[in-house]
Amino acid sequence: MATAFSHTQYIEVLGEGADAADPGRLGGKGASLCRLVNLGHRVPAGFVITRDAFQSALKEMGLTSALDTLDSLLAGSGETISTGEQIRQSILSRRIPARILEPIMQMVENLQLWEQPSEGVIVRSSATIEDGSAHSFAGIFESIPISTQEEFEPTIRQIWASVFSPRALTYFREIGVRQIPAMAVVVQRFLRAERSGVMFTRFAGPDGKQSILVEHVEGDCEKLVKGEVTPERLWLNEPQDVPESLEGPLRPGHARALVHVARRLEESFGAPQDVEWVIHHDELHIVQSRPITAAFSGEATAGPASSFSTAPILTGVPASSGTGSGPVHLVFNIEQALQLQSGSVLVTPMTNPDMVVAMRNSAAIVTDVGGIICHAGIVSRELGLPCVVGTETATTTLAGGELVTVNGSTGCIYRGRIETERAAKSLGQVQWSDIWSAWTEVTRERPDLVPIVSTAEALKAMPSAVTSVVLVPDLDLRTNKHGLWNDLEALPANARAAALENYVTMVAQIVSEQPTSKLHLLSLGSLPHHELAETIARVANLAVTLYDNNRAPFPLVFDPGATWPDGSAAVPLGCASARRPGSSITRQKIGGMAEAEAAALDTIKFFGHRPGSKITTMPVPESRAKWWAVLPEYARFHQEFATASTTGEFEWLEVRPELVISALLKSLVQPGFEMVPRVLG
Q1: Which tens digits make up the pLDDT trace of 296-310?
Q2: Exposure string (b/e) for 506-517, b if CB count within 10 Å is 16 or more?
Q3: Rounded CA separation 325/362 (Å)
Q4: Segments making up each domain of the chain, as ranges
Q5: Among 158-162, 208-212, 502-506, 668-672, which is the least confidently predicted range?
Q6: Domain 195-291 falls in which CATH fold?
Q7: 3-189 CATH choice from 3.30.1490.20, 3.40.30.10, 3.40.50.2000, 3.40.50.620
Q8: 143-192, pLDDT tens digit by residue?
Q9: Is 21 left (phi over 0), alpha (psi -120 to 50) or beta?
Q10: Over the stretch 599-649, which tens digit does the pLDDT of each residue have?
Q11: Up-side HSE of residue 454: CA atoms within 13 Å toward CB?
């Protein structure tokens, strides 16, 4: 192999070159494969067509203006499909410019990728946001095996064009991507597999313990990943535990090799890995390794199967934990998937990437075929939906419209809607009505106190006796409908104005249903006050005003531990719950600081990977106490452990807000886990 060809602007040989393993240039898959080669793993020979080739080709095709338009539509709330389709068709109908294509074709010749023409090459997507720790992009982009050189150039364009497909654009919108990602392309020798599979290097086994999960099939792995077949399954721990008499088509030597590879990859990448592998000429080859985006909990959130009083009508393989109930919606094609009503149970022979939107709206997912590591299982775990795969007969056993309960933790499907005692407690443990009940009890003798609430959801349960309320809009405005981060400042001015107007109109409507109530909107963070004030003046009635420190009828008191003033004052609603002894919302014990820090720093469990960190000073108490006091669980935690005034230097995790915003703002399931997003200013 000639070193002169290892690195140019448009190509990078796997494992070589100064920029090897840079996902910003090679995409997630390309960077991971380069690193695998550098670590000494057996990887099929090949190279990466960099993002520079993609961007340069689209520029020379005259698509820059259309791309800018598409970015604007994606960042706002505009319809992206038609513009994306125009770009996609333009890419498919034109050849790659010669100055970009020639070095690529020269690299193909140099690496002699066609020396075994019966096997050919595989051209694989490697988007710059693909194969990360937050989202798998399972099946969203294309990967295409080809057998002749004439297919090569149009196949590259087909991979590029998949960025602009309807399913990709819909997925971008669903997960909060606001700019079209660049697409690198991996080109590798295609190995005709004797056996292939996927390995999760750490996964909850049937006994709840973490083990290595291997699913495998005869021949190529694509049918396993897509969920077209129900694979063989193997749970592994240590190489010495693999018996020589291992039953099944996977040989003991290969099983031991997989265990060794699993341990090395976890150590090298610092997190549990989702690994694709093939057996070719009796040797194990690694064709992909990426972080596991969402793990499976072996704990049944709805209780064990024995807690159900009726026998299941169907069983399969538990692929995503939890329990969901709803009417059966049978799906055999994408048109039927798009007709799914929110809260239905999606029952299908197998899922595909075009069904992601329908999957997101379902109460649970059941398939005839597939394994724990197939498309249905991976996407269900990312979405937090119960999923049972490999039932064999779900689409013939279950009738459309029939009410069923799916236990994704045990793999059982039951007739009717079934709730266990544990599930009922979980669902009813902390409701806004509980918190308002605490407020009413604690402030019975202080009707002059005004509650500060963190979300419009709290207003809907507000008792009629409350005549004034302060609402902090930042939380609502900075999360999208899926609980992911909404970067308000990055929106175009008209889109931001529309978001503010919709929000103020909505809360004004809620308050208008209680004519005696007065609502004060208060922005604690970086939300522009003048824009909020202008919106209130334009669309709201007299029942809604902007809280003004200079002319306020009452002061704000945010310290959960402070003595409340004798006169009128606004205090966080959560402070009342923290002060109410024996409250129903305090029946579950909160651990102390040691437990909270241990939970927060268990980054593998919380994020699925190990993010970077740095040592820096805790923000001043006055800056963060206001925000955390508004959130009920934090008010209670700081009240109990006096952490609101903590100062000093701490280890801070470097993670994107969208990775934690849902857990942080919706449930705060790890009390004490501190984060200072932009809402704090």
Answers
A1: 555 444 444 445 557
A2: ebbebbeebeeb
A3: 10
A4: 3-189, 195-291, 305-426, 429-681
A5: 668-672
A6: D-amino Acid Aminotransferase; Chain A, domain 1 (3.30.470)
A7: 3.30.1490.20
A8: 888 888 889 999 999 999 999 998 888 878 777 777 898 999 999 988 88
A9: left
A10: 666 665 555 556 677 787 777 777 666 766 776 656 666 666 667 677 778
A11: 26
Give CA 391 to chain center in angstroms. 26
How much is the average pLDDT of 54-68?
94
User: Is residue 532 within 8 Å of 481, Cβ to Cβ?
Assistant: no
Burial of residue 223 (number of CB atoms within 10 Å: 0-12, 13-18, 19+): middle
**What is the value of pTM for the model shown?**
0.60
Structure tokens of 180?
């079209």
Residue 114 burial (CB count, 10 A) = 16
The full length of the chain comes to 681
List pLDDT tens digits, range 670-681: 333 343 333 333
The kind and range of the H/E element at 532 are helix 529-539
Burial of 381 (0-12, 13-18, 19+ CB in 10 A): buried
Active site residues: 375
Domain range 305-426, CATH class: alpha beta
Task: Check: CB of residue 554 under 8 Å from CB of residue 570.
Answer: yes
Instruction: Identify whether the C-beta of residue 227 lies closer than 8 Å to the C-beta of residue 359.
Output: no
